[in-house]
Amino acid sequence: MSKSDKEGVSRRDVLGTGLTAATVAGTAGLVTGGAAVFVAQPETARAEGEDNGHNKAFVPPGKLDEYYGFWSGGHSGEVRIYGLPSMRELMRIPVFNRCSASGWGISNESLQVLTEGLTPEGKAFLAATNQKTYVNGDLHHPRPSYTDGAYDGRFLFVNDKANSRLGRIRLDVMKCDKIIQVPNAHSIHGLRLQRYPRTGYVFCNGENRVPVPNVGKLLDDYKKWSSVFSAVDGDTMEVAWQVIVSGNLDNNDADYQGKYVASTCYNAEEGITVADMTASDKDHIVVFSLAAIEKAIKDGKFETINGVKVLDGRKTSKLGITVYVPVANSPHGCNAAPDGRHLIINGKLSPTVTIFDWTRFDDVFSGKIKGEEAIVGNLEVGLGPLHTTFDGKGHGYTSLFLDSQIVKWNIEEAIRAYKGEKVNPIKQKIDVHYQIGHVNATHGETKEADGKWMVALCKFSKDRFLNVGPMKPENDQLIDISGDKMVLIHDGPTYSEPHDATIVHKSKLNPLEVWKRDDPFFKFSTDWAKKDGVKLEEDNKVIRDGDKVRVYMTAAAPAFGLTQFKVKKGDEVTVFVTNTDDVVDLAHGFTIVDYGVAIELAPQATASVTFIAAKPGVHYYYCQWFCHALHMEMSGQMLVEDAGV
Ligand code: K7E
Ligand code: CUA
Fold first, then answer.
1. DSSP H or E stretch at residue 7
2. How far apart are CA 472 and CA 292, in angstroms?
3. Using CA atoms, how far apart are residues 522 and 481, in angstroms rounded to an integer?
4. What is the pLDDT of residues 529-580, one digit of tens each?
5. Rounded distance, CA 309 to CA 395, Å?
6. Both ends of the chain: CA-CA distance in Å?
7. Exposure letters 341-352 (e unless 16+ CB within 10 A, then b)
8. pLDDT over 70 for what percent of the chain?
9. Burial letters 363-399, b for 16+ CB under 10 A, else e
10. pLDDT digits (tens, 9 = 90+) for 617-631
């Protein structure tokens, strides 16, 4: 054993056990529940400082990556675009957060996206608390849209656990174009898309149980609270229907046939303390039949709550739209395999993965067989299984939070073992650093899983990077899965906190190099320009309309179309700036000093910002993207007159 191996093991031992004990203690414990048990043969990767073929992931200067990685920014509220295999961060897409660089949350265009889809209650809350928009978000699950089980490059959908929202990013411009707050549901967590025939529905898990509607009644009657499952139309971003369920919805996934969606649920006990929630040794998954739901909607079996058609899909419901299948306590990840047939439920507190056969749900719904008879495998994989990804060659790769490992196992062999055959489905275990959450392989969530790369999104980095103080980064690790063995290739620190990532081959995407002038993203500005008879691409004009002032200007390196404009103290000023350069990467910006104003202007973009000219004096505005040798000179002055002076 090499020195580095020894170091690796001892550091893991010291750091791992305390957490494991603390995390398991106080829960109902580990429930194996009749799983096929095999002696795992962990193979500790040489994780410490050796070259395991890192060259394979090295993308030389000037060369491009092969994959786009869409990374959840967790409670930063943003999405990040990575290049794989280099793991270079290519871009950030602000969504639920505010962004100082791009003016997301400052520009009118972004504020429109951030506010127009909020619920009336959400709008009233913001108004009552003097806020234009929520400033935080908690983005866990970035999901690219599908056509027939493969990525189609149209959209990326994202959840906000913090403020119950769903966002949509246009993949042609890599900008968020729609955000809605989902009525009735409380905290959108699990998020998956209809795979077939296309997306289609976006399935949003309302995680927490609350009174429905949640208006201040039933506060002390928590047995009457409910979780709400929502299907949103991905094209219109309107809620198509909702289903009230029993238990707390966690993660979900859809099949490859367009028939069923399944969700893991914890807290089948419907308690509100940890002890209540884990009292029973069983929780469940809930399976939704899309055909049955659509029929029940058509037959008028819904109740309209806050403008949404809501069906009762609780255990006691007679509608036949859901089935509940018991699984070991507190399952987490829910992953449809690319074979189109199997669904993997990850045990979390149970050291097992449970394999369901989607095709058996027809008989479960018709009452021919029991829900448990849709189970075709139950494999003990290790401690704390959270999520599973796939290589398209018949393997599952399951993240083990407590063991800080990924286990590679064979799906067919696990099914055979469940039938009693003597096979060992466990192929390899590899150490990851540390406390892994999601695990994602290239195209692993599609029928085109290609088994090349995998990322381990680890919640802790502990000793893997230079000490940056008590707050440490997370660690996103790149693993080569193209051979028989998983090989750890790269450590990548990230901050707060990638829950999940999806990896899309570059052939699937073809983003624009410059904006098209008729893009609907500029609608706020083009509508005003039309009203004012202004040509955004040419005109530099100040239009006064009572105490409202609209300032139109162009930006072309190295000058703004207006180098000065004058307003009065107290005016409501809207500045529209259009970048008329159409050179690739020639971005400008517009920042006003001491006014808290900054907006991004990518080539051929228009953006606008509205503010009260509350502060008299001379205020420079400048371009904040270094665009030209005379970039420093790309500025002007807003003169704010104070009548009283
Ligand atoms: Cu996808 Cu973190 Cu929201 Cu598991 S969840 S880790
Ligand atoms: Cu334009 Cu700097």
1. helix 3-24
2. 48
3. 43
4. 999 999 999 999 999 999 999 999 999 999 999 999 999 999 999 999 999 9
5. 40
6. 81
7. bbbbbbbbbbbb
8. 92
9. ebbeeeeebeebbbbbbbbbbbbbbbbbbbeebbbbb
10. 999 999 999 999 999
Ligand 2 atom at minimum distance from 631 CA: 2
- Which secondary structure element, helix H or strand E, spans residue 244, and what is its range? strand 238-245
Atom number of ligand 2 nearest to Cα 626: 2
| Cα of 436 from ligand 1 centre, angstroms | 10
Query: Nearest 5°: phi and psi at 524?
Result: -55, -45
Q: What pTM value is reported for the model? A: 0.93
Among protein residues, the one whose CA lies closest to atom 6 of ligand 1: 437
Distance CA(100)–CA(95), nearest Å, equals: 13
The pLDDT score that the predictor gives to residue 18 is 39
Q: Which residues line ligand 1 (CB under 6 A)?
A: 140-141, 189, 251, 332-333, 386-387, 437-438, 499-500
Query: Is the CB of residue 397 less than 8 Å from the CB of residue 338?
Result: no
Query: Can you tell me the mean pLDDT for 271-281?
Result: 86
8 A C-beta contact, residue 189 and residue 159: yes
Query: Position of tokens 């002038």?
Result: 517
* The two three-digit tokens of residue 600, written as one number: 């991004």
